[in-house]
Automatic annotation (TrEMBL):
Organism: Asanoa hainanensis
Keywords assigned: Cytoplasm, FAD, Flavoprotein, Heme biosynthesis, Oxidoreductase
Protein name: Coproporphyrinogen III oxidase
Pathway: Porphyrin-containing compound metabolism; protoheme biosynthesis
Membership in a protein family: Belongs to the protoporphyrinogen/coproporphyrinogen oxidase family. Coproporphyrinogen III oxidase subfamily.
Domain Amine oxidase: 12-455
Superkingdom classification of source: Bacteria
Amino acid sequence: MQKRVAVIGGGIAGLAAAVRIHDAAPDTVVTIFEQGATLGGKLRTGELAGSPVELGAEAFLVRDAATGEDSPAVKLAHRLGLGDDLVNPAVGAAALAVNGKLVPMPRGTLTGVPGDLGALAGVAAVDDHDLDAGEPLLAEGEDVAVGALVRRRLGDQVVDRLVDPMLGGVYAGRADRLSLAATMPALARQARREGTLTGAVKAAQAAFPRVPGGAVFATVRGGVSRLVSAAASASGAEIRLGATVRELARTPDGWRLTVGPTRDPEHVVVDAVVLAVPARPAARLLQAVAPGAAEAVGALDYASVALVSLALPRPELPELSGFLVPAENGTAVKAATFFSTKWAHQRRPDGVALVRASVGRYGDEHVLQRDDAELAGIVHRELSTLVDHSLPKPLDTKVQRWGGALPQYAPGHLDRVAAARAALVPTLALAGAGYDGVGIPICVRSGESAADAVLAALRDRPQAG
């Protein structure tokens, strides 16, 4: 009998799950239920002054850190026929705003945590308490906040000027609140073996497979939204936009979804479900069927950010891919990307440059209460100060707000997710950034793993009759 699988959530994790199911079990009927009006979640390409510009995730890692193979995002792009449209940055050098000036990002760090203290000269003063006491930094299974560990071993400035802005750029979070195991799993593994933090960093870096001359990042020519539309097409799924799944209930043979408005609900029966939505809506759906799992995932908090893009006529910009701004600088801008410098395919013959700034940190979202015009004005003034000269008036601006978009993994996050998954029946699987980590490759892998799990459960289920 033909099986039916519901994928709740049309972000890249849900789309990757649908493609995987289609490839592994082409006779399975897949339906994607997406509450919003578009697919892709935080993968969204817009337009600025006639050029494509990313309004969400910009690029992805080329290599899988654990294996050295192509990352799940690169593999998916090839599967979708976009392999020839992958492009790498033309400029990779980045900077850090220190004492009002842009200085080169120190080399040899792991998400800002140094393996060589000598590389921090002129960037951060080090309180070197990184002594080997003859035992690992962390006990087996132990998790701590990144900031707590680094402050204890190397002092405050290393956290405030390096680690915190790096984590802020990725998670809009703070080092003192984010889990080491969830945000830096390679470093966490080595911290359970090594007696010093710098030793753990070096061991983690040595464990990364090296590809000589290989690029670190890639994006899709024409915009990452092409990845979304290609995945939707390749999935063979029925796609239902504006379809809110309000309830999830067990049936003797599978699941019943309640979809649509309260006054006119629709009931859809399926054999398995991939739940690829953020933690809070997932917790609401799980409450009736797995209250323990609902409690575990519902504890996850999120940060809000705004991405402000400016089209500037012939500006004088440093030859950088972008820069990070430590919170101690007191600016609204926490990171900036010079798209037209970083990506050769986005350079324009008329000299118009595309610049994007990220605004908003966890616990400090008051700046996001400004309207779009005021926010764009703040960004323009602060960028002018940070690059040390007045930038020209923008030809066009675009403000993209992402409310509650970036998960804040508190210490113990991975254990909570493992407990939640253990509490679920095999035909229900979780996928997405709220569980396994941020970034396109991680979300693709998460969706594919969820698809594999429910397909295995369906194969193992006794057949009726």
